[in-house]
Amino acid sequence: MSGLSVRGLEWSAPEEKEGSFPGIPSEVVSIALNRGIEDLGEFFKPTLKGSMPDPLVLKDMDKAIERGKQAVLKNERVCIFGDYDVDGATSTSILKRFLETMGCEVSFYIPQRLTEGYGPNVPAIEKIAEDEIDLIIFADCGTVAFEPLARAAALGMDVVTLDHHLSDDKHPEGILVNPNRNDETGDYGYLCTAGIAFLYVVGLQRALREDGFFEDRTEYDMHHLLGLACFGTVADVVPLVGFNRAMVKIGLRHMARNPGLMALAECNEVEPESFNERTCGFVFGPCINAGGRIDDTWLGTLLLTCDDLTECAERANALYEINKERKAKQQLMEAGAFEQAEAHSDDNVIVCYNEDWHPGVVGIVASRITEAYDRPSIVIGEGGKGSARSIEGFDVGRPIKKAAADGILIKGGGHEMAAGVTIDPEKLEAFRDAMNAAAGHVDRPPLVADIDVPCGGISRRLVESLNLLAPFGANNSEPRAMISGGMLISTKVLKEKHVKGRISGEAGDIDIIMFNAKGTPMGDAILAAKGSIVDVYGRVEINEYMGNVSIQVKPEDVRPQKQPELAF
């Protein structure tokens, strides 16, 4: 199939690659091979033993472990300074749980997002020093926080940083373990800090074992921490390859060992048996992040480090209610943002602004606009603070950094797919013009399909077997199908916002559903194509509703072919 679609993109059909693996259908093996998977065994049956690197492969991990060992042997006071997102909360919790069990006196500190901002700051460091801390460990932050870390050292604290953010040529005070530091030569840049923290405690326990520490005490069961490492890895959207894939696939089975996550599951009515990567990314993750976005940043870590079931229930319920508040704020913000987006729908980059919008929610709203309009968007709220989200083919961080250098922004930075800005609202139009000029021409890659079938040609057995490719996430997305030659025989709008339809072909019918799509280019295109022959690109899934089971597709692109010919 060729030609442009509603999104103006080419579609790429999969190659037919043959291969086999015990217990895996050939169609699924073919998808894995098309995705460049070379070791089918490690992909379909990953093991920690086969994929976990020796912690010492990370530069200066030996120094960090030695300093941690001394802290344990001397029962020192340790403070963990973490970030307010899920990766920060899980890595902080991994470190606190292990070091506390080993006999250290452990506290933690999470900066308040709205008043302190991201990462270490000097006032916080000075406050921590008042507790006579011997060792401070920065988790998921600190790589470029030169002044605060220097202040920590000046106040007599030894400094260890476990982080995965890009470094400068200059390194901060103390010991830095970061697979993305500029002089690192290893291949583990895909790790988030939760994975690094897990490797750290594994290495530290080994060092303590070699020192005879466990001759009269029990070693820590690392499976209790594996679920936290899994959660942080999924929520931080790092590539699910290598050790990450094994950590997530195996760690999902151990998440129920954490009382805080079990309490969060009960609030959200999720059964432990059904824990999967979507539970991490779309149920637990938003609850933990909600505390960091609009309320108390400490709540997530307090929950994940808690073993008292009553306290866990109270903290989980608090986060659940905060997340409900976040959803309400998001809904109100989206209404205004989409109204502005429609007014600027011809722009290359959609920029929306309202001083009343909560800065902790602007990133989520930007993601929704980018998804709906298929172009980069920047949503700016209170205090001129905003977040940008992009599309494949356009590095949104580059023009934002240039706008900051040119004085259009107060500050701005980020990477290809996401960035942050702070702007004086009086310069909003200049910023809009600069971004539109930067995105004048974007080379969009084609949409790559894993399955190419005629309408109705997907069996329930095939859809169910696609889960053998899980866990899904970055670098291993849910399979996409190209479904060709179906007549769009019906369309309707549900609850005034969702678009539903049915396409019919010689091999059978299949339902399509797009949530929150009414009024978006894709949703309107589907409604307008009723009675036409269409090709659909999207995710296929099993839909169970009121005892009925059917296959449905969630379209990500549609390509109208032609009107049907009438027979007389």
TrEMBL record:
Pfam families: DHH, DHHA1, RecJ_OB. InterPro entries: DDH_dom, DHH_sf, DHHA1_dom, RecJ, RecJ_OB, SSDNA_exonuclease_RecJ. Residues 450-557 form the RecJ OB domain. One of its GO terms (biological process) is DNA recombination. Residues 77-209 form the DDH domain. Keywords: Exonuclease, Hydrolase, Nuclease. One of its GO terms (molecular function) is nucleic acid binding. Residues 347-438 form the DHHA1 domain. Belongs to the RecJ family. This is Single-stranded-DNA-specific exonuclease RecJ.
